[in-house]
Design a protein that fits this description.
This protein is mainly alpha-helical. It has helices at about 5, 10-30, 40-55, 70-90, 95-115, 125-130.
Length: about 130
């Protein structure tokens, strides 16, 4: 493992990667915490902020250019922002079961599965984890 490809990548990618990694860690912590507590709500706000930052910062990353400067990954970012809004609205409306599944879906789809796509050969995170 080497951080050199990430260090050489520029501030937008660095901030994007850091926020995603923090989002994975805080999301896992959130699953372990008691639900409905003030701590859960506070950490949830931080996590939503991180995920929104990850989605928004993706628009400053243009490694995969499929439609102008954008790729299918940017479509996932738009979807993530919309689902975040839905998840927040569900919690505020007291629809906790729906909120739970929405947020679990965001964690799995918006961070874990999307994160796996960063490990495709040739991408920066692939080089971070798998460079000799």
């Amino acid at each position: 493992m080497t951080l050199e490809p990430l260090i050489a990548s520029g501030p937008v990618i660095q901030a994007h990667a850091l926020a995603a990694i923090l989002g994975i860690g805080l999301g896992a912590l959130q699953f372990a915490m008691p639900k409905g507590t003030p701590g859960h709500r506070q950490l949830g706000r931080v996590w939503v902020g991180l995920l929104a930052f990850v989605a928004l910062s993706s628009f400053g990353i243009h490694e995969l250019r499929q439609v102008g400067p954008f790729s299918w990954i940017h479509g996932l970012s738009i979807l993530t922002l919309g689902v975040l809004a839905v998840g927040i609205a569900l919690a505020r409306a007291g629809r906790i079961a729906a909120h739970r599944w929405t947020m679990i879906g965001l964690f799995v789809g918006g961070l874990l599965i999307t994160g796996l796509f960063t490990l495709v050969p040739g991408r920066i995170m692939y080089r971070v984890f798998f460079s000799p």
